[in-house]
Amino acid sequence: MMLTLKQTRQLRTFLLGLLAWAVGLVMFFPIFWMILTSFKTELAAFASPPELFFTPTLENYVEIQQRSGYFSFAWNSVVVSFGSTIIGMLIAVPAAYSMAFYESKRTKSTLLWMLSTKMLPPVGVLMPIYLLCKNTGLLDTRTALVIIYTLINLPIMVWMVYSFFKEIPKDILEAARLDGATPLQEISRVLLPISKGGLASTMLLSLILSWNEAFWSLNLTASKAAPLTALIASYSSPEGLFWAKLSAVSTLACAPILIIGWLSQKQLVRGLSFGAVK
Amino acid sequence: MSTPATDKLRTAAPAASASHPKGRLSRTRVRAAWLFLLPMLVVLLLVAGWPLLRTIWFSFTDASFSTLHEAHFIGLENYLNYDEGEWYGVLADPQWWGAVRNTLFFTLVSVSLELVLGMVFALVLNAQFPGRALVRAAVLIPWAIPTIVSAKMWSWMLHDQFGILNHLLISLGILDTPLAWTANSSLSLWAVVMVDVWKTTPFMALLILAALQMLPSDCYEAARVDGIHPVRVFFRVTLPLITPALLVAVTFRVLDALRVFDVIYVLTSNSADTMSMSVFARQQLVEFQEVGYGSAASTLLFLFIALLTLAWLYLGRKRLQGDL
């Protein structure tokens, strides 16, 4: 049977759609499995063969609060992510403004140099930073994490805000300038409203990067300031006796990202691709 | 910079441009611009410069964690040292070279796989199909969640007795007996690669998708009118056009993969079979408290990455100048 041109195209669309959904399901499966495990009892989690249908329970969620004090870790994560994002934006926006609108010969090399610090292996500065925190009494404090996350994410933030500012026609700023606006007014009255979407993506990226960071939180915090990533890492029994509880903590650690991602898909995609996807 | 539009604005407001000499005004503005840039530059110098120099200094001393203040300068002994017929130092440490091998293998294999799969994902996600937004978001999730979570979840799924993966593979008839993915020395590095590919392919796919979206559609119209096979169109039109974006994405990933830490640390801890250079250096520094020795390893890793970055900056400067 010969297919018409239109039918071939329809078939191709159908097959591509099928492939896309298959890819999506495979990628999502581990997350699905984690969420599923978090509603099992520890016993059911170890059932062999693994069960797809079971009586769901909330006992893991209750127990992670009672036994490991989930909320204090979550609160540390929230404070540290928001703190570093806000401070980062306060530094990144002016820096990107001067790079984007007062470009000099050195601007591009400054940008590249700045981005290259992002490539530093963190272990290369681990000991000095650890000692610095120890000597200043910042070890195991949220302040230390806020400072370090701000520093780590700054290059990416400046770069992203810079690329969003670059898209704004200079005429608009000229016009504001002729109306007598100071640089600060230019930023707050003209640039920020125009690049709202881009700035939101940048903040989202910074929030996610800080939320997910594990190297420094593992090495610089003990109990007081430890965020969720440190709590999850501490579930390290190789025999894996607490998989259901670990799944519950992990699900809660992913939940904000999943929810925010759902609410702001466009900003999330833009942020996570470092502004590449418009 | 003066465009026709701004010139028009200037003539529309002659009073402003006449009463303020342009030179002085723009000079104060340039000064303000530098002032805005200053906090960032200071901050970056502090974060990138000082601690790094300190690490390099430690690497030339015999410092250990408890004797930091009595550390002595010992030259290159931490790197390489010949004493009573034997070589010592990081460069003579078989475990370090194992870590170098693991890191290079991990980088090469995972970045290649991510590139190929990312390309496939991007092409698929670029097509029109029902539920595209949802699928795009679902594919993105592995990249958005904490690495520590994905590594933990995978070590659960890869569990030799209770893991879902062994169960699936056995019931599909692919495996006869369960495999100890993270404990078996010939498999564990592949398990690490698999988890990294799962996590990072979305990032690759996103960057490639961005490049695909910017392609001019008239090339494709022309190719379709001429009846050229889609596979040929891909290799002759699409691939050359997105190569610059691919290079940027691959560079990002390579530099990131070379300092891999958390996937490996969570999945296999300090096992020598999968230990990366970062894991090696951290173990020396934190667990063995050999500050001098660990700093030497850190410095070597830093030098390696820095040289690669410099080479890339040198080669890619021309290409990047258009993009940034």
UniProtKB/TrEMBL annotation, chain B:
Coiled coil: none annotated. InterPro entries: MetI-like (IPR000515), MetI-like_sf (IPR035906). Residues 1-20 are annotated as: Disordered. It comes from the Bacteria. The chain crosses the membrane at residues 32-53, 104-125, 137-157, 187-212, 233-255, 293-315. Keywords: Cell membrane, Membrane, Transmembrane, Transmembrane helix, Transport. Its main location: membrane. The keyword Transport applies. It is found in: Cell membrane. Gene3D superfamilies: MetI-like. This is ABC transporter permease.
